[in-house]
């Protein structure tokens, strides 16, 4: 035991066997992942608390997020998780070329994710859809209706499917009812303030109302062509034309003050709890940027780790006997993906 | 079997002189050297925090201004708290003493991730630099808890300080992670869970809290930085945020953190009590499991810091949970007392500190019940009663145990004996000074003196002066300690392998240990079976003679797994 001469170079002097070292590394990485989850848990708590306390803010503000880009990013990350898993397998089999190729692909996924994220951030930045003191009142924005119209078309497409994703927070349900009430009201040309008040009062009726809301939305969904335009557009600049197209589908006249139309600049006044424009919208964006920002930093860290094992792979450090670092980095990358898989519905697919 | 002492190898290199030069220290992966580097670092922080405490107490010598103005006073007590907590007490026993003894007690060659271990020391240094820079640039004045909205509105260096604490948090997480994995995966054959010394159970429970609670502090501080730097508004009511949320987040970490501070101290005390009364520990399993129970409870009591801001139902639940923490704590205390009963008590410095711990921690724990009870807490919260209670637990508990541990393991760490009589005198000075300082504060608190106040009415003057005098007595005790410990490094008597007759494994290698800890992995015996040693009057060493008892299953204790060590 005290004889170290039979220790392979990759086995630490304080370990007796390769398995012991591998098990230790694995346990250590799992513990580290637990700390990462707890780090995000703080933000998830903040999210839950503010969503419960200010459901209207979340319902209103999430519509400024681009579901298509978010969805594409989800696919990108899931794919990169797959290539990472393959890379780990190839490393275990000692296939150096395949491992390196798959790691490079994974890295590419990370680059793609960050690129798309940067596009999304740029939008928000341009329109002042930011946190706290940096938030600019959307009424003053010009590009917004276009972007929003586009978003809205998307909304029509995704809405029916969203039911499965709906959270069962009581507060959220109430807000949801309020929103749907708003929908109906818009159709009836009622003023939004009344409608929203109604919706809140009759929160218990939320389900009925949401039925009507869905009907409205499926109209939007029917307009597939408009959808395409909208989604194509959203990766770039928001174009007012698209908005113009999409908005009629959802039964929205420009300036109509139902909740989803809140971006329409004409209406919108500083309604405190009047339904069409909740106060403190910036809270959502604060949480959005904190969560996605911290996640983005983790993506960058993960990419750093992947680059490191990629270099070591190319250098020939690993073999069928020893590829622990690839395994561990793989675990980390899966966690990064997992966090996003929670962030995406919580932030983008609120209903 | 290796029962040899290495007295014959007087010239053999040890971990201190195995590699020369400062660079070999700064790049070392040896847990013992990292432990020593931690020890030096945290003692520096302790000195700094102690000086700040003396300034605070001096300012409070008279009502109104004594030496500094009110703003400076706010900065002094904030820095005292933040430095003592984040730079000294939290890393104190685990990172300094724990790093040194954990692999040795386990019979391992190192911790599981030596590089990570070194990284956590560098993170500590980085965090400390942040904290100290903030001191120079514009010291924080919010109190060590950084409560919002103070911390979002003050003009002082909150971001600098909280980033420092954030980094220190990661240092703490990595140490904890390292210890958990080491204890799970690096126990040699024969070292079963139930042969682990209670120190290791204490460190294990601590490490679990470090790993599971510290990330929440991390995100809390990140949110605070985001709040201040970017104006996110999460904690700002004018932006729709909730300032109380900060307190929930903060205490979700910081209550468990007080167990990060006290659990390893309890581990130290379990060793000292047993070794220095030369009696097997009473209730080994109960002490071990109560550490884990305390760790579990620690996560569900944070609400007791917000009794004045929660619903009555929430208050009652948190109050009841808080009381239940006292059960495992009392289990330990009674087991220590039972261990002392009819032991061969050796009244040296480690034992004196252990006895002081039981006494002071007893007071600290019992006064905690006053604060856990809703009715009395409403009266006592935010008074000096809190300050006194907190110091009885943190100083009377953790720092006293730290001092006891330092004396106990000093011969192993540096291979030198300290001056026992001076150590006894210093211990007495610290004990008396401490009680003068803080017992008066219990009285001040019940009389209504609010904590953190710069000024006070004349009625409180005498007690405040008494308290300040006590702090000066403590300071004398500490300077004396520093003096004889430093002196021992150059002129102390050389320590033998096992001067105390302890039965844990770290005493079965040279003092100081060789670089790889053991020539051969030692066979683990029950750690409190003192029949494995025999005193050798010629060398003053307790020679290892191997276990003479058989255990419940008829096996010779200590010989399990012996085959794997050859
Ligand atoms: Cu507490």
TrEMBL record, chain B:
InterPro entries named in the record: Cyt_c_oxase-like_su1_dom, Cyt_c_oxase-like_su1_sf, Cyt_C_Oxase_1, Cyt_c_Oxase_su1_BS, Cyt_c_oxidase_su1_bac
SUPFAM superfamilies: Cytochrome c oxidase subunit I-like
Subcellular compartments: Cell membrane; Membrane
Protein name: Cytochrome c oxidase subunit 1
Chain's role: Cytochrome c oxidase is the component of the respiratory chain that catalyzes the reduction of oxygen to water. Subunits 1-3 form the functional core of the enzyme complex. CO I is the catalytic subunit of the enzyme. Electrons originating in cytochrome c are transferred via the copper A center of subunit 2 and heme A of subunit 1 to the bimetallic center formed by heme A3 and copper B.
Signal peptide (residue range): none
Gene Ontology biological process: aerobic respiration; electron transport coupled proton transport; respiratory electron transport chain
Keywords per UniProt: Cell membrane, Copper, Electron transport, Heme, Iron, Membrane, Metal-binding, Respiratory chain, Translocase, Transmembrane, Transmembrane helix, Transport
Pathway per the UniProt entry: Energy metabolism; oxidative phosphorylation
Family: Belongs to the heme-copper respiratory oxidase family.
């Amino acid at each position: 035991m005290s004889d170290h001469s039979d220790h392979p170079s990759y086995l630490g002097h304080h370990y007796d066997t390769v398995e012991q070292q591998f098990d230790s590394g694995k346990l250590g990485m799992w513990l580290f992942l637990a700390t990462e989850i707890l780090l995000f848990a703080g933000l998830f708590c903040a999210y839950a608390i503010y969503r419960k306390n200010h459901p209207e803010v979340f319902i209103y503000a999430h519509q400024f997020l681009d579901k298509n880009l978010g969805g594409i990013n989800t696919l990108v990350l899931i794919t990169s998780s797959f290539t990472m898993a393959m890379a780990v397998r190839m490393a275990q089999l000692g296939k150096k070329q395949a491992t390196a190729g798959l790691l490079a692909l994974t890295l590419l996924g990370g680059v793609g994710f960050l690129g798309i994220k940067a596009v999304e951030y740029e939008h928000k930045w341009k329109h002042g859809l930011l946190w706290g003191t940096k938030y600019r009142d959307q009424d003053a924005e010009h590009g917004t209706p276009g972007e929003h119209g586009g978003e809205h078309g998307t909304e029509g497409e995704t809405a029916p499917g969203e039911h499965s994703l709906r959270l069962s927070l009581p507060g959220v349900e109430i807000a949801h009812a309020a929103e749907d009430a708003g929908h109906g009201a818009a159709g009836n040309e009622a003023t939004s303030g009344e409608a929203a008040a109604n919706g809140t009062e009759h929160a218990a009726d939320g389900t009925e109302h949401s039925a009507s809301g869905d009907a409205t939305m499926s109209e939007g969904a029917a307009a597939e062509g408009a959808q395409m335009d909208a989604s194509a557009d959203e990766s770039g600049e928001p174009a007012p034309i698209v908005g113009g197209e999409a908005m009629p589908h959802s039964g929205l006249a420009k300036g109509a003050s139902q909740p989803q139309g809140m971006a329409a600049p004409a209406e919108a006044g500083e309604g405190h709890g009047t339904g069409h424009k909740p106060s403190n919208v910036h809270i959502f964006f604060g949480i959005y940027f904190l969560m996605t920002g911290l996640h983005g930093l983790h993506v960058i860290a993960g990419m750093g780790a992947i680059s490191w094992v990629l270099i070591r792979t190319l250098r020939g450090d690993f073999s069928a006997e020893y590829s622990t670092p690839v395994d561990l980095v793989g675990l980390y990358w899966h966690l990064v993906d997992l966090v996003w898989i929670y962030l995406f519905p919580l932030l983008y697919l609120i209903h | 079997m290796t029962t040899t002492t290495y007295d014959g190898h007087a010239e053999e290199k040890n971990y201190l002189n195995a590699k020369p030069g400062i660079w070999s220290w700064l790049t070392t992966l040896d847990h013992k050297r990292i432990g020593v580097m931690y020890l030096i670092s945290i003692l520096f922080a302790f000195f700094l925090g102690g000086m700040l405490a003396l300034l605070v107490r001096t300012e409070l010598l008279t009502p109104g201004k004594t030496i500094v103005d009110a703003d400076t006073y706010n900065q002094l007590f904030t820095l005292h708290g933040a430095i003592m907590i984040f730079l000294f007490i939290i890393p104190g026993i685990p990172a300094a003493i724990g790093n040194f003894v954990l692999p040795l007690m386990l019979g391992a060659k190192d911790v599981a991730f030596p590089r990570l271990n070194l990284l956590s020391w560098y993170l500590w240094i980085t965090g400390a630099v942040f904290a100290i820079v903030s001191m120079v640039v514009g010291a924080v004045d919010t109190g060590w808890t950084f409560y919002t909205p103070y911390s979002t509105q003050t003009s002082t260096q909150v971001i600098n300080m909280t980033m420092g604490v954030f980094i220190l948090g990661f240092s703490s997480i990595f140490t904890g992670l390292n210890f958990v994995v080491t204890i799970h995966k690096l126990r040699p054959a024969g070292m079963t869970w139930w042969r682990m010394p209670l120190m290791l159970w204490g460190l294990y429970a601590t490490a679990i809290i470090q790993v599971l609670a510290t990330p929440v502090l991390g995100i809390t501080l990140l949110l605070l930085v985001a709040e201040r730097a970017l104006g996110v508004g999460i904690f700002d009511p004018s932006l729709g945020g909730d300032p109380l949320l900060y307190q929930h987040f903060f205490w979700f970490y910081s209550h468990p953190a007080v167990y990060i501070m006290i659990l390893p101290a309890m581990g130290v005390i379990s060793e000292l009590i047993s070794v220095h009364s030369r009696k097997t520990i009473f209730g080994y399993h109960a002490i071990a499991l109560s550490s884990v129970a305390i760790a579990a409870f620690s996560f569900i009591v944070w609400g007791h810091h917000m009794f004045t801001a929660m619903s009555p139902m929430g208050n009652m639940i948190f109050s009841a949970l808080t009381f239940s923490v006292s059960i495992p704590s009392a289990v330990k205390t009674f087991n220590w007392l039972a261990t002392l009963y009819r032991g061969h008590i050796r009244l040296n410095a480690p034992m004196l500190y252990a006895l002081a711990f039981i006494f002071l921690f007893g007071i600290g724990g019992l006064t905690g019940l006053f604060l856990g009870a809703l009715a009395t807490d409403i009266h006592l919260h935010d008074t000096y009663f809190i300050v006194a209670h907190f110091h009885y637990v943190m100083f009377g508990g953790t720092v006293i145990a730290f001092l006891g541990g330092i004396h106990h393991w000093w011969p192993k760490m540096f291979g030198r004996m300290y001056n026992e009589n001076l150590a006894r005198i210093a211990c007495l000075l610290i004990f008396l000074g401490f009680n003068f300082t803080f017992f008066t504060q219990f009285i001040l608190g019940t009389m209504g003196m609010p904590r953190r106040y710069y000024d006070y009415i004349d009625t409180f003057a005498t007690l405040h002066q008494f308290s300040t005098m006590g702090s000066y007595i403590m300071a004398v005790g500490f300077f004396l300690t520093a003096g004889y410990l430093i002196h021992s490094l150059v002129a102390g008597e050389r320590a033998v392998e096992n001067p105390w007759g302890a039965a844990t494994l770290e005493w079965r290698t040279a003092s100081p240990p060789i670089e790889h800890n053991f020539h051969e992995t030692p066979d683990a015996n029950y750690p409190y079976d003192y029949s494995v040693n025999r005193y050798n009057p010629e060398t003053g060493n307790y020679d290892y003679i191997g276990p003479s008892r058989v255990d419940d299953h008829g096996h010779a204790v200590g010989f399990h797994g012996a085959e794997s060590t050859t």
